[in-house]
Amino acid sequence: MMERRYSFGADNSYHYEEHRPILIENYRRSFLGRVRTLSNIQRLEWYFILFSFAIISIGFFFTVARMVSLNFRSDQFLVCILVVINLTFSTYYLVHGILQEQPFEILAYIFTTLIIAVFVTINFVSVDVDDYVLRVMRFMITIILSLPNIVLAVKIGRGYWQSGTFIFKTVGGDRRLQRICRIYLFGQSLLIFDMQAMLSCAIIVIQDGFSGMTNEQTYMFITGIIFAFIWLFVGYAAMRTENTPVTWVFAVISIVQPLYVIYLIVQGLDQIDKQFNIRTNSAYFIGFVLLGSHFTLLAFLPIIKTNYGKGLKEIIYGVEPSSPVDFRRNIVIVPSRVHVHHHHHHHEILPADGE
Questions:
Q1: To the nearest 10°, the Cα dihedral for 112, 114, 117, 123?
Q2: 161, 321 contact by CB (below 8 A)
Q3: Max Cα separation, the chain?
Q4: Residue 341's pLDDT band (boundaries 50, 70, 90)?
Q5: Cα torsion angle, 158, 164, 170, 175, sign
Q6: 166, CA 20 to 30 Å: which among 158, 260, 265, 294?
């Protein structure tokens, strides 16, 4: 794998050349940025991966088996769709969190595991005795396996947070860049988690397998799904490219989103009984989760924006820097030593440990 090394001339201009990375032999570049190789994954992490995949597979099996026996117009079928969506996102958090040693992705995995457990519990306590044995088995297996899985996830995530190995390998020993990178990764994780909750909220509005929905509700459901993907794309593009105008666009549509989600929930609840049932419980629960994650992301957005132009995207994604002065002040290539090479009136800057 080749890396770019930036150098600066006496006139403060810069150029780059390809070179082989130092101390990053266990990492490779991908469209997600720098990720670990499989040989770098430790034994405890493999235990966590295998155990988690086993739980996810069991979850998919019981959910699909339950869906086959249900009327697709029932609220129980709706809960099964919600479980499938969240199981899919938990798979993403697991893989991405391990490959990038991201504590925030592991935290999102933990919250998603809890969300699935709540959906399964709501379904268990809110319906009659139909398919009682299957429901009891799914409920017991979900709760029993989720507890040790969460404990193991907390241990893995805590280790990632304390060591900061991936961040150190990515941006070096500069503590300020490490802090910027942590905030950026936190924002990326919140972005995905927010979309996950948004999709779940949009699913809640489905009435009787779509047949019971009004034209207005159908329109709002479809536009909600489309909006969730557009919003994710805009947010990811804004953070990755550090584009201020796109960030402002993202902020505006992010303010509109909670109002839109509340509208979906209210319109969906207007069409159902006011009793304590599956849809009511699920709507209020996932709506609360969405609003919590969404306003947390909006609160961190100004902090993320203030870190634009400080060299992070150049390091993570290998983008050519737009500002030689800012990049020279912040760039960290190898977190092991300092070398200043004098050659044809230009210098190559490599940071020292702990800087």
A1: -80
A2: no
A3: 82
A4: very low
A5: positive
A6: 294
